[in-house]
Amino acid sequence: MDFLVEGYKKFREGFYKLNKDIYEGLSEGQHPKALFITCVDSRINPSLIFNINPGDLLILRNPGNVVYAYDDEIDYSVAATVEFAVYKLSVRWIFVCGHSDCGAMRALFQEKDFFKNTPKLHEWVESNSKIRNIALDNSIEKSSDFFRKVEYQNLINSLNNLKEYPFIKELLKRNEIQIKGLYFDIKSAHVFIFDEEKNDFIIID
């Protein structure tokens, strides 16, 4: 764990020393500006990508940044976190962020042998099989951008599920909450935002 210790020392001597006031404020409670739902992928660091301070984002991660339907019994962690963010922290912005080269999306197309010794991972991937079926039904050829299209579709599906949460639906009607889809391209470090009117992902300049 040497790399953690060294990093911690640098943090104490650098960022913390220059920003003690931030941590003094955070010790009294959190008031995040947004809920940020993204993938467990180690290459996705929202605080670094968006250059924001500790306490600004409430971050939820799972494999594939999946948001299931509110009454789905597969996973309660997303619904519980959204409730916590909205009702206990008064968050009024929710972002769902996908990314390129997503292992969870690629796993949808793996053979069963790929999941040897990882039964829970297999269950998680299969619970999102709707995305695979949409891709196959649309006859998307496995070209260079095949998986990007799958990643986009997964993100859109998560956004749609989130918007159907009963309390989110009511807040949207009253224009009291904003929900946006983001996509991070790892190689270029570009972020794209989903434009619902154009049904397309637009690069943020």
Would you give an account of this structure?
Strand 1, helix 3 (46-49) and strand 2 form a beta-alpha-beta unit. The protein is an alpha/beta fold and 205 residues long. The protein contains 9 helices and 6 strands, in the order H-H-E-H-E-H-E-H-H-H-H-H-E-E-E. The chain is globular, with a radius of gyration of 18 Å. Helix 7 (129-137) crosses helix 8 (146-163). The chain has helices at 2-18, 20-26, 46-49, 77-88, 103-107, 119-126, 129-137, 146-163, 166-173, and strands spanning 34-39, 57-62, 93-99, 178-185, 190-195, 200-203. The protein is 43% helix and 18% strand.
Give me some keywords for this one.
alpha/beta, Beta-carbonic Anhydrase, Chain A, 2 domains, 6-stranded mixed sheet, 9 helices
CATH class of the largest domain: Alpha Beta
Report the sheet-strand fraction.
Answer: 15-25%
Enumerate how many helices there are, as a single number. 9
The CATH superfamily of the largest domain appears as Carbonic anhydrase
- The CATH topology label of the largest domain is Beta-carbonic Anhydrase, Chain A
Biggest sheet details: 6 strands, mixed
End-to-end CA span: 38 Å
Which regions contain 5 or more consecutive residues with pLDDT less than 50? none
Give the helix level as a range of percent. Answer: 40-55%
- How do the helices and strands follow one another from N- to C-terminus? HHEHEHEHHHHHEEE
* The number of domains: 2
Shape: globular
Structural class: alpha/beta
Rounded average pLDDT? 93
